[in-house]
Design goal:
By secondary structure, the protein is α+β, with helices and mostly antiparallel strands. It has a single domain, classed as GAF domain (Beta-Lactamase, 2-Layer Sandwich), CATH 3.30.450.40. The chain contains four helices and six strands; from the N terminus they run H-H-E-E-E-H-E-E-E-H. Helix 1 runs antiparallel to helix 2 and helix 1 runs parallel beside helix 4. It binds methionine sulfoxide (SME).
Length: 149
């Protein structure tokens, strides 16, 4: 199966998974688990905006930094820009925060509610160049399932 086919199977499953639950933390936990199980990611999880920092939320994988200031690292940059950031080689990203030395590429997708970033989805890979526009396309839709009307 291609990764696009995997995402196409996963998206309706994730929509169904979150449909009956209003609690965003519970939904982040299951969405992160579903993604992490479907792919060979190193770390899959969420940081939630709390004032001027991102605070670690539900995740799958090794322990991680608990707080990331606005504009710092890949996560803080995606928050500040309000846009998905794809990093093919984290060692070349100025200000990258290395929670794990095994991570080599990363994607961070901001989650918006009423025009504000309320959280980010962060995925790390041990391979270089893991993430591209296909990941962006589907992960943005998956991230959006966490925000209920
Ligand atoms: N590398 C991230 C920090 C979070 S860990 O990857 C889980 C960053 O630079 O924001």
């Amino acid at each position: 199966m291609t990764k696009e086919e995997t995402y196409q199977q996963l998206l309706p499953q994730i929509k169904a998974l979150v449909a009956g639950e209003q609690d965003i933390i519970a939904n982040m936990a299951n969405v992160g688990a579903a993604l992490h199980e479907a792919f060979d990611f190193w770390w899959t999880g969420f940081y939630r905006v709390e004032g001027d920092v991102l605070v670690l939320g539900p995740f799958q994988g090794p322990i991680a930094c608990t707080r990331i200031p606005y504009g710092r690292g890949v996560c803080g940059t995606a928050w500040a820009q309000g846009q998905t950031v794809i990093v093919p080689n984290v060692h070349e990203f100025a200000g990258h925060i290395a929670c794990s030395s095994a991570s080599n590429s990363e994607i961070v997708v901001p989650i918006h509610r009423d025009g504000e970033v309320i959280a980010v989805l962060d995925i790390d890979s041990t391979a270089f160049n893991t993430f591209d526009s296909i990941d962006r396309h589907y992960l943005e839709q998956i991230a959006a399932t966490l925000v209920k009307a």
